[in-house]
Amino acid sequence: MAESLDTFPRLLLHNAKVRPDLPAIREKDLGIWQSWTWSEVAAEVRTLACGLAAQGFKRGMTIALIGDNRPRLYWGVTAAQCLGGVPVPLYQDAVADEWVFVFQNAEIAFAIAEDQEQVDKLLEIMPKCPQLKHIYFDDPRGLRHYDQPEIMGYDELLELGREFDRAHPDYFLAEVEKGRPEDMAALFYTSGTTGNPKGVVHSNKNLITTGRMAAEIEGITENENVLAFLPMAWIGQNMFSYTQALICGFCVNCPESSDTVMTDLREIGPSYFLAPPSVFERLLTQVTIRMEDASWLKRKMYHYFMGVANRVGGKILDAKEPIGFWDRLLYKIGDLCVYGPLRNVLGMTRIRITYTGGEAIGPDLFKFYRSIGVNLKQLYGATETSVFVCVQPDGQVKPDTVGKTVGSVQIKIADSGEILIKTPGLFDEYYKNPQATAEAKDADGWFHTGDAGFFDADEHLKILDRAKDVGRLNDGTLFAPKYIENKLKFFPYIKEAVAFGQGRDMCCACVNIEFDAVANWAERRNISYSGYTDLASRPEVYDLVQDCVEHVNRDLAADEKLAGSQIHRFLILHKELDPDDGEITRTRKVRRGFVAEKYATLVDALYSGKGECFIETQVKFEDGRTGTISAILRIVDAKLASPDAAKRAA
Amino acid sequence: MEQVRNIGEPILVVENVSLAFGGVKALQDVSFDVCEHEVRAIIGPNGAGKSSMLNVVNGVYHPQQGHVTFKGVRRQDMNSHEAASMGIARTFQNIALFRGMTVLDNIMTGRALKMKTNFLQQALWWGPARRDEMQNRHKVEEVIDFLEIQHIRKTPVGRLPYGLQKRVELARALAAEPEVLLLDEPMAGMNLEEKQDMCRYVLDVNDQFGTTIVLIEHDMGVVMDISDRVVVLDYGQKIADGTPDVVRADKKVIDAYLGVTH
């Protein structure tokens, strides 16, 4: 092929030429999946790009894209790239103030917003970001009476585009021609656990080379279907439903709304699926809730066959060890009665490749999916490395490693234990932040991840934790907070957990209940409550969580190195940890340091042996207002398991 | 931002209506009008005759005296079927949905009058019946989208929480594409957040489709916020009529709500 497919616009035009009639993107609208073919998408992007050009969008400028996964926002990304501009996808559920820094840092003058909610937030930050001059909206609902000169509907923009295209018919292709693989293709702002977010700059080359490399290894074709339901601002989402979709030419499906993802997942039955562990956790929680409401027979059947799956399911999937005839038969029956229907409910019947990434996944959660025959694999990577660094190869999946390096990626373990990475997809720089760039990327081009890890005997990378988080208790016992938190989070009743112990005598934990699951549990037991805070403080709920904690302690006791870091005391938080309050990041990673600081009184109470503690917390509501919640929290001692007892039980 | 709604001529006029059940005088000589595109509230203490008034407009009750004029047609007796085909839809104080049917099917029943094919054709689901259903389903989906209830489309109504059931009922009324929408205590029994949502939907319906809305409500706060004009009933009689500010300051209204001896 004469033309080189090294920029996103060229990939789009290529797809429009070689597979014009295959669906490129679908969106469920008015209850029906509407599709656009590659040729239709190319035509739409052309018009949109011309519209932006007519409005003064030029090479090197930035454009913000804010909203759920909507085809028009994806087209906005490509249209900007066609003109040599830089798309900046933002987290749609952020409060307006969080955007101010990004808009100022990237000097964003253009924005495409999904709906009234996002437009309102943009209008709110406008006084602080005077360079923001153009806001386009997709869904006109509620915006009829907005008469600010900066606001324009998407359709009106297309109309301008058509006019511009008629007047300058050669403009679009000439602009696409000017694109170079080294050009900045996208800016991803990392949520960052400390300080202001950093804008990670990726060129066309970074993203496309990495995406292509991973697609070749897994044999991804134009026949895949993916469901785009994670925030567009997350690079994982971009890689798997934008970059790889353009490279391979497969179809991306946008769900109807964030509430319908479960149903849409079932309807689409994706063949390629990527989600952070929290999504897999939520899916499992829903299954558990529904199983508890099921009839006696179904419940018995489920528990029996899940036991079988737990014993042999993973091994059958890996096809490594020989399995006895009887177990094989049992698993087959289980597949017919339980696993198959379960996969169907989860929308995983057609799945070929599933990744979990973005966070470490709890081993029990991981085993659950593999045992019912879903080929779930771990993926290791970062925003700075264009996602793919390590992937677990088929048939060699271990729950506690993230697999082998992908393609031409190189990994070096520093003397400190930190993981260093060199990859063709390595980011160019942090936008306008040379100091941070120099800290993260050394002179030889090694990226310092900040993660601690090592290679095991089979060359699989094992991640311990964020290097700065792995610590020791005062008596020298190894303390890996994330490991403990993940163990707790495996229980459907626990949504979030924060473990403390670094530099202390014992390990203690703060726990968030999973409201849906606990509410359902409480309802079946006729326990009345008035809301989240009340439910979280019920003694019955404390007992429930205590069981979970003691279960974790028994598991920890079985591991010699971790037996000392059992949870001695815990409490249930009166409010959910929320990204709006800064307690977790938008990608749902707990900011442990921040939580320890904010709830210092609670942490003190945990360690001082008090039985209860009064706490008053400020909360930020979604519309930006603040309020306070106060509560008296009970602190409970958990029973510790002795290592011997644990062994006997095992 | 000021709302630009053109409130038009009276579309519905109630003249000297009296209604009695045996010795109980539910309504005595009540008159008021409802203009096109406005939000009109009927308020009053328990037993004031609010629901009876709505039932008269809707054709469920037949007043002994007085007339109701709707779109220039004056009549004493209107049956509810006529009311519906002339463009009046309503919701009920005690939710009246088919509990075993899905949300989608419930809302589809709101299109019953718009279906052109007959029972037999629909049973066979062939040719015109199929097209007919597709067109009507499209309209229903628009309503579902408008009220943001996509996630419960296939859920049986009986399994939904109260607030959502109320929204489904509104959806069914909207599916009939009414000119006048009668809402009987749409916010009763809701928590604050659900009330705010419902207010937003009522205003959106009024704004986007220009639907005239007559609503009965207990919650004074809600009424004062969203209505253009308010009628106050007490013991079957009209005691005040006007904009929220006028009504709020009215001596008789204050007395009725605080319970002065008559």
Descriptive notes:
The complex is a heterodimer of chains A (650) and B (262). Chain A is built from 22 helices and 28 strands. Chain A is an alpha/beta fold. Among the domains of chain A are: 8-202, Rossmann fold; 389-466, Luciferase, domain 3; 471-649, GMP Synthetase, Chain A, domain 3, CATH 3.30.300. A five-stranded parallel β-sheet of chain A has the order 4-3-5-6-7, sandwiched between helices. Chain A has a five-stranded mixed β-sheet with strand order 12-13-14-15-16, sandwiched between helices. In chain A, strands 24-25-26-28-27 form a five-stranded mixed β-sheet, sandwiched between helices. In chain A, α2 packs across α3 and α11 (277-293) packs parallel to α17. Chain B has helices at residues 50-58, 80-85, 103-109, 119-124, 128-146, 162-175, 192-209, 220-226, 244-249, 251-258; strands at residues 10-21, 24-35, 39-43, 65-70, 73-75, 88-91, 180-184, 212-216, 229-234, 237-242. Chain B is globular and about 60 Å long. Chain B is built from ten helices and ten strands. Chain B is an alpha/beta fold. A six-stranded mixed β-sheet of chain B has the order 6-7-8-3-9-10, with helices on both faces. The mean pLDDT of chain B is 86. The interface between A and B is medium-sized, with 15 and 19 residues.
